[in-house]
Structure formats: structure tokens, C-alpha cells
Here is the input.
Amino acid sequence: MSENHGRPAAEPIERVVAGTTIVAPRGELDLLTAPVLSRRLDALTAGAFPDLVLDLRGVSFIDCSGLRVLCRARRLALSRGGRLRLITRSPGLLRILHHTRLAGVFELLPRLPAELDAAAVSPVAGRRTRSPDSAP
Here is the structure.
């Protein structure tokens, strides 16, 4: 965990694309920040057939609290007939998932699926948004 124990938990960036909710937390996902993401994911998995993509490319650190949030969101999504996919290319996060035997549990993607990237629309402004993988 970092030495910045007083930092506020950042709200994750969120958008809906073609019926799929894409949530992109940033920074550290640890004991201090995990509750913010957990509350949001609980709300997003409350309905029937939730389809979530967690874009973890902006996450620089994750601890067991963060892993617990991911596992809980997956369990809730599946229990309601939905799914949860994780986007990461981080060797550190992939190693953690492997060592905790969670790599085979989650659907892992290296980038946003093409069908979602091509249809990316901001829910607030109704305009096209750029994904982290798209060129300027």
C-alpha cells in the first residue's frame, strides 16, 4: 500500500456501450479505495443480466481488498445471469491472479472488445468517446 493513506478514493470512470457497462477504476485498488468501487459494482449488478467490463489498465496496485471486490462483482453478476470481464495487460496483476488461482476464474481481455470500442458513446453527453486503445 502506498504511504498516501489520506488520499480520497477516486470514483471510477463509467460508460455504457451497446448495453455493456464499462467501469474504469484508476490508481490503487486497496483497503482504502475498494469500498468506493464495491458500492458502485453492487449497484451495477443489482439488476437482471448485468454485463460489465472492468477496465483495470488504469490500476497501478491491487491488494486482497481489491481482489475481494472483483470476486464479489463476478459472483453477483453471474447470480443474476450476467457476466463480468476484466481488461488488463499488467504483468503484476496477471501474476497475482495466477498465484491466487483466479486467472482461470475471470474472463481476461488485453483490451476493450472491438464491438464495444467501435460503438463507444458517452452516456452523459451522448457523444463518441475515445478508448485508451484508440489513436488520437
